[in-house]
Amino acid sequence: MEPDGGRPPRRNPSAGFRIFEGQAVVVLPDEAEVNVLNEVGARVWELIDGARSVESIVDRICEEYDIGREQVERDVRELLAKLDEHRMIE
Amino acid sequence: MNPYQQIIDRNWKSATPYAALFELTYICNHACTFCYNSPTGSRELKTDQVFEALRKIADFGVLFLTLSGGEPLCRKDFFAIAEEARRLHFAIRIYTNGYLIDEAMAERLKQEVHPFEMEISLHGARPETHEVLTRVPGSFARLVAGVSALRKRNIKVMLKTPITKLNMGELREIKKIADDLDCGIHFDPVITPKDDGDREPVQMGSTEEFMKRWWSDEFADVREERVPSRRDDGEIAAVCGTGRSGFALDPYGNIYPCVQWRTKVANIMEIPSLRSIWRESSVLAEVRGIAEEIPRTTLKNSEVGEFTSFCAGVAWLQTGDPRKMYPQAELVARHRKRAYLELKARADAGEVIEGLDNTFEKCVL
Questions:
Q1: Contact (CB, 8 A) for B191 and B200
Q2: Is B91 within 8 Å of chain A by CB?
Q3: Does the domain at residues B3-278 carry the CATH identifier 3.20.20.70?
Q4: Mean pLDDT, residues A17-24
Q5: What is the pTM of this model?
Q6: Interface touch B7/A17, C-beta < 8 Å
Q7: CATH of A3-85, one of 3.30.930.10, 1.10.1270.20, 3.20.20.80, 3.90.930.60
């Protein structure tokens, strides 16, 4: 999933976050929610900068983790869909 | 335990801070009779110094940043500071008296700051009560209008009401104001001394007779807690998060273990990083040690220990010893325990009282 028809994903600008021992804690003020992302999810979150395409994020995850590209692509797109559903990205 | 609680628990046990309170200024547009601030007259940090402090706090991994005062919105550079805090990805909470919040200010806060919570002190249900304490005519109406403007924009607001002799007859009405404005409300039965140890504000505290009523069923709906909760120090092993889960800074850049415990750790302008002092500071080591000791000594040895909301900083200010039970904590705990035992007796006699067996609370900053 690539939000807004191919535009690089961008973190919700209202989100506050930190990485604690590899996990990302993301606070969404408008939703009054705190979400936690696991290590790979946290790395994807860090890579979402409004400039990198989904493909580029997948490339980086493939470089950094010993996981097959097909699975990375599927997992990253699933994660982005979830982040979008929770309004963590736009 | 959910993943977020697991992270907080881990940070707590390893004394890795995730929260900081930053008093941006002691300037205030109110003159509250029991304000705890004690300005020294030193020069407050300039904008670029505040930015440097924020960067050091962010580099240290702190997520939750509370911007406080004085009145933080009195700083002319408040929005520049907030913008820098946003750039550093803090989750921002603001303590304010609400006086400066009109529709335009609420909109700027929504668009530029994105606070996850605003905390605002409400001292009475009527202007004459609120303003006796703030000593600013019109402050009640402006607070209510400000809260309304924030809520209209879906900004979460928590009202705070220290219970005093003046407002103890209005607490139900105050709760109604909070409900009507769709806000949370926290009633605080303990009035703290000033940071310099002046105990004069403590005289404003409510009466013992009222405390007895406050913890009874009569006010259960206002407290939103029928059964007074008990402490669970078994897992956390420290009375609170002072010097552990968080820390505080004053407008001069001085770092303290928390907002109540005013023993200077260092000045943030004089250290290369917070990491460089966090594990090495003898002040922080002592504070953490005392916080761990209190559940095993002070609270364990007290008949009302498990019902005591104990602040080592207030104990220090009130008695000179952070480990010593202080009168307000003991008074509140005594009435909480009495109320609990009354409910338990009724439950033993056959009455159904929900929550009686599940009343442990964790103390998380």
A1: no
A2: yes
A3: yes
A4: 94
A5: 0.92
A6: no
A7: 3.90.930.60
